[in-house]
Amino acid sequence: MISSPVFEIEPLTPNIGGRITGIDLRKDLDAEQVAQLRRAWLEHIILVFPGQELSQEDLLRVTGYFGTLGKLSRPAEFRPTGYARLLPDIMLISNIRENGQTIGALPDGEMMFHHDMIHAEKPHNGTLLYSVEVPTHGGNTLFASGYAAYETLDPDVRDRVEGRLARHHYNYGSTQRGDSRGVAAFAESTHPAFRTHDETGRKAIYINRLMTIGIEGVGQAESDALLERIWDHAEKPEFIYEHVWSVGDLLIWDNRCSTHARTDFPSDQRRLMLRTTVEGTRKPE
Fold first, then answer.
1. How far apart are CA 46 and CA 50, in angstroms?
2. Residue 278 DSSP SS3
3. By CB neighbour count within 10 A (0-12 exposed, 13-18 middle, 19+ buried), where does 180 fall?
4. Does position 184 have pLDDT exceeding 70, yes or no?
5. What is the pLDDT of residue 143?
6. How far apart (Å, rounded) are the C-alpha atoms in residues 266 and 40?
7. Is 283 part of a structural domain of the chain?
8. pLDDT-wise least confident of 116-120, 192-196, 239-243
9. What is the pLDDT of residue 181?
10. Helix axes 31-44, 56-65, angle to 10 degrees
């Protein structure tokens, strides 16, 4: 257990994750306290704040501790009717249905490892997710360290991909691989396959199984083979922390150096999360 004047940090795995206790995020933090949280985030990649009781205003304020609040362009069909109110720039992640339609995005089932917003020209640095309702089992979130995966990647594979760009495609209705995701939108982007973190200077794998469709400068067959080898390596258990959600958990993760995935959960049980993001400061390098 590492002590600080503001909170305590318990590492969750050797490579990724820290549980923060001794802090009530309903209370305003001063500049030094915010700086300590940001340092902890950069070190641990994911921060878990259990047992929080946050309003939407609290969530927006806490998001601002980690950077500029990411703006949300929410399609009209995903403005909830039964949820009393939803402040701008908060997204519902939910399988709850009203009149046969989901009130939130990304509603059902498992989801492959991915980086949030990698399909954008300037991806968001971070994502926050706050649990309001959770199923009795399933719906866990797995987080994988892109740093640890890069640093232990087979040098032959790493050398063949180093310095190359990767192409990412995502259609929120379905990916190139045909997986239903339930939100109508589309985007493509090209970014370095291995990204240098703009604050830590460390390199991380920056491709993922859900959205990455190719590595530039090599043939498609070689690209597919390289991607499969990198994905299989990056998703090894030793690089992963699996979070089992409880109501009141708040998580923030760094999309610049981690991927995350979701396990399946019963479709007849309610799952409701509030999501915000931290804007990217520049295009990945």
1. 13
2. strand
3. exposed
4. no
5. 98
6. 34
7. no
8. 116-120
9. 40
10. 80
Look up tokens 């929120």; give the residue: 172
146 belongs to a structural domain: yes
Residue 285 lies in a domain: no
Q: How many domains does the chain have?
A: 1
In whole angstroms, give the CA distance from residue 53 to residue 131. Answer: 10
What residues are paired with 204 via a beta bridge?
195
pLDDT over 90 for what percent of the chain? Answer: 74
Which tokens belong to 170? 């995502």
Partner residues linked to 242 by β-bridges: 142
Query: What tens digit of pLDDT does each residue of 68-108 get?
Result: 999 875 544 445 555 657 888 999 888 877 777 777 777 77
Instruction: Supply the DSSP string of 74-109, one letter for each residue.
Output: --GGGS-SSSS---TT-EEEE--EETTEESSBS-SS
- CA distance from start to end of the chain: 34
* CATH classification at residue 85: 3.60.130.10
Work out the average pLDDT over 270-274: 91
Tokens of 50: 């259990």
How do strand 186-192 and strand 165-171 relate by DSSP bridges?
A: antiparallel
Structure tokens of 194? 């291995």
Q: Is residue 56 part of a domain?
A: yes
- Domain span holding position 105: 2-278
The mean pLDDT of 16-39, rounded to a whole number, is 95
